[in-house]
Automatic annotation (TrEMBL):
Assembly with partners or alone: Homodimer.
Keywords: Isomerase, tRNA processing
A GO biological process held by the record: tRNA pseudouridine synthesis
Domain of life: Bacteria
Pfam families linked: PseudoU_synth_1 (PF01416)
Protein residues bound to substrate: 115
Record function comment: Formation of pseudouridine at positions 38, 39 and 40 in the anticodon stem and loop of transfer RNAs.
Name of the coding gene: truA
Protein name from the UniProt record: tRNA pseudouridine synthase A
EC number from the UniProt entry: 5.4.99.12
Listed GO MF terms: RNA binding; tRNA pseudouridine(38-40) synthase activity
Annotated active site: 54 (nucleophile)
Amino acid sequence: MDKRRFFLEIAYFGQSYHGWQVQNNAISVQEVLNSALETLLREPIETTGAGRTDTGVHAKQLYAHFDAAPVGILAKPDRFIHSLNALLPFDVAVKRLIEVADDAHARFDATHRSYEYHLHFHKDPFIYPYSCFMRDRPDVDKMNEAAQFLLGRQDFECFSKSHTQVFTNICDIRRAEWLWHNEQDLVFHITADRFLRNMVRAIVGTSLEIGLKGKPASFMQEVIKSKSRGKAGVSVPAHGLYLTEVAYPYI
């Protein structure tokens, strides 16, 4: 029987993984997913993800596609998901199996992606792996003023990891906003058509230069125009970052 294309919606806690993508010398989410799929379907499986996440970054929603014949357990989505989850580690979960068109692509068809970065200001050992602890509260109004300079289609080379080979540094940011949750936890929400490596963590670090260290809101625009990673703030720790949504026109 001819193979068909399937999308998997997955979520994972990234602390134990060196990001999404398979690597030669470190464990990744893609590696454990491929291994579980091969065990379940009894054939070599290669997944393609919606994008990369860096070491230690979490995902509340990420899609990956793979090709297989729609027979056996693949013809029973609920049973397939249950069995696949039983094979996966506790910190990786499959939520949905979706049969799609043969030319559908988890990476190239995504219309936008959203991230959150979480900060907390009360020392709590139980939320430390999920959020970045800070002792001082920043000026959130000022950071939101600065976030307006991020909106639109621009060259964001200044926020990209150095020596990264990409076709373009142009991204279209559609949302950039800081919001208090429960008056104690501060979350940065950002949505764009695509992101560069390390981009969100560098944006958050630059925002904190404004919110904590007295730089004007216009410093954000100055950094963007400079196209210099050295001008931007330091990258904040990975464990506060979550990929929260990947959107497609057919899902």
